Amino acid sequence: MTDSEILNSDTIKTLKTSISEVTVYTDRALVTRRGTVSLTGNERELAIASVPATLETESVRATGAGTVAVRLLGVRNRNSV
Most buried residue among 5, 50, 60, 72 by CB atoms closer than 10 A? Predict the structure, then answer.
């Protein structure tokens, strides 16, 4: 099974977020985004809409709550490809 067969509309959810907090430092900014998505347990990828192309993927953190366990396995920014 190829990646494209595994990652179809049933296994990818898009999360719309809004900026809830910003802390500005002299050389960077910490931007906190919040959003809500319902997961079934079948998803394999969560796409976060409207993030900047300058996003530093190693700085991404995620938390969640609910009955479905979630793990952050990796981050990629399709805007910078």
Answer: 60
Beta bridge mates, 23: 30
- Taking the CA atoms of 76, 44, 4 and 12 in sequence, report the sign of the dihedral they define: negative
Q: Which residues contact 44 (CB under 8 A, 6 or more apart)?
A: 6, 7, 11, 12
| Cα–Cα separations (whole angstroms), residue 81 to 31, 55, 57 | 22, 12, 12
Contact 77, 57 (CB under 8 A): yes
pTM: 0.66
The DSSP call for residue 14 is E
What is the DSSP code string of 18-70? Answer: EEEEEEE-SS-EEEEEE------S---EEEEPS--TT--GGG------SSS--
